[in-house]
Design a protein that fits this description.
With 111 residues, this protein is mainly beta. It has no helices and 11 strands.
Length: 111
């Protein structure tokens, strides 16, 4: 099983990005998925969680109200919509599903 991420990049403060995490796993919709971030000098940190059906979500306080996690179980893809980005959001973002991890996508917020 592979998780393939896309959507990172360089944005100005206040900008938006949407990250995608695609897999071919036929059982994707049976389990929750997670997003983490890893900034230089820090440990990998949890960002958000979505339940298998997508009807329950949780967020770290630092992103609550700015980020939205979602999923499309038909497409076996998860998303992280990131709005009002701040320089402190700069990190490599990873999706996680069961024991599988995406390759990471760099998000850089800078003026």
């Amino acid at each position: 099983v592979q998780l393939v991420e896309s959507g990172g990049g360089l944005v100005h403060p206040g900008g938006s990005l949407i990250l995608s995490c695609a897999t071919s796993a036929s059982t994707f919709g049976y389990f929750g998925m997670f997003w983490y971030c890893h900034a230089p000098g820090n440990e990998r940190e949890w960002v958000s969680t979505i339940s298998a059906a997508g009807n329950c979500t949780n967020y770290d306080n630092s992103v609550k109200g700015r980020f939205t996690i979602s999923r499309d179980n038909i497409k076996s893809t998860g998303y992280l919509q990131m709005n009002d980005l701040k320089p402190e959001d700069t990190a490599v973002y990873y999706c996680n599903w069961l024991q599988y991890w995406g390759q990471g996508t760099q998000v850089t917020v800078s003026s």
